[in-house]
Design goal:
It contains 14 helices and 21 strands. The chain has 395 residues and is an alpha/beta fold. Strand 19 (360-364) and strand 20 form a beta hairpin. The structure holds ligand PMT.
Length: 395
Amino acid sequence: MNLIVGVSAGIAIYKVVDLVRKFIKRGDSVKVVMTNHATKFISPELFKEISQNEVMTDIFENEETAAHIKIVDWCDAMIIAPATANIIGKIACGIADDSLSTVAIALNRPLIIAPAMNTHMYLNPAMQNNLKILESRGIKIIEPDSGELACGTSGIGRLPEPDEIILNADEFLKNFRKNSELDGKKIIVTAGGTREPIDPVRFIGNHSSGKMGHAIANALSNRGAEVVLITSSDLEVSKNIRVIKIETAEQMRQKILSEFENSSAVIMSAAVADYRVKNFSEQKIKKFDDNLTLELVKNPDILFELGQLKKNQILIGFAAETQDFERNAREKLIRKNLDMIVANDVTAEGAGFGVDTNIVTLITKDNLKRYPIMKKSEVAELIADYASKTLGTLK
Ligand code: PMT
């Protein structure tokens, strides 16, 4: 594999010398990009010797034109270790003011970031928020270890050992195999909660944040699928994903139907409102009486409709349940003619709406598998595994 190793100025930089050595030893090609501050810790000559490649430190001094684009075109993936709060903040904000940040912004391949810093810096809300932003774009964050830190304190913030970084990177990058079953396949993913308007200022909605669906979209896109994400959420996703914003269930239905015919799969994690207000009020409803009655009418069941239309396509639904969730989910799987349903008990702690984790049971016609609490990005990989395996058998 062709790897860019991005190095910023942390004391853990010494471990990255070994990391590069290990990549080279097992046959990877490595090009190192360093920030100016990083060169104060270690000379670029050392990385040049180990990697047997020129080290990029200052794109403006580089004789080659567009060197930052050429290196990005050459690589299969990029890993930044150690990643300081500064470089993480720059990538989150899209700032490109030195070699490393410019290469990271130009990158259109998988990116892995291994933060290393003092515990207080790592736990700073701005830092944590930046990591969440990066994760939401499909970037892999390798969580730092806890232990003694260079500043003399103890806590989370240590750069993991090179072998652990390699293990994490391999696990993440295995999903980017070229020619995977998902490569080039068009997959529709829905996310977020629909909003059914009552009047110009009010709506009926739900607590879906879009995190689950956006994580699925990222996982599929990372594996080479052509993802169309139909969502009500403003959360960011990987730049390769085509995003269609909607508000109501009917808008979601229209967009799905117009994309469905040439798609290979639909994965519906959106929380679609079952009812909408019958008579939308053009004006804001005034407060007159003590009681206000709104008449609701049923929305179309989009998944049910797709279940009737599907031809050699796979359909994956979600079931948000508060009781008997496995039985209710199985009933939906059969009634809506789905290939798989992801059941989540949305009352369980760490599961369902708004949180970064979920607790799911994957149910097919002849299988049921319960999983422990996991990050939504990990649940997304399980779903991508299933989609990949099943699409492989549909050929
Ligand atoms: O967005 P997050 O904050 O990350 O939260 C994730 C989630 C809890 C929303 C997600 O994990 C989830 O459970 N999504 C499904 C929510 C839901 O609407 O479940 P349901 O049991 O009411 O619907 C069953 C399936 O039919 C769903 O796939 C739904 O998208 C679909 N449906 C529902 C109603 C309708 N009119 N048309 C549909 O297609």
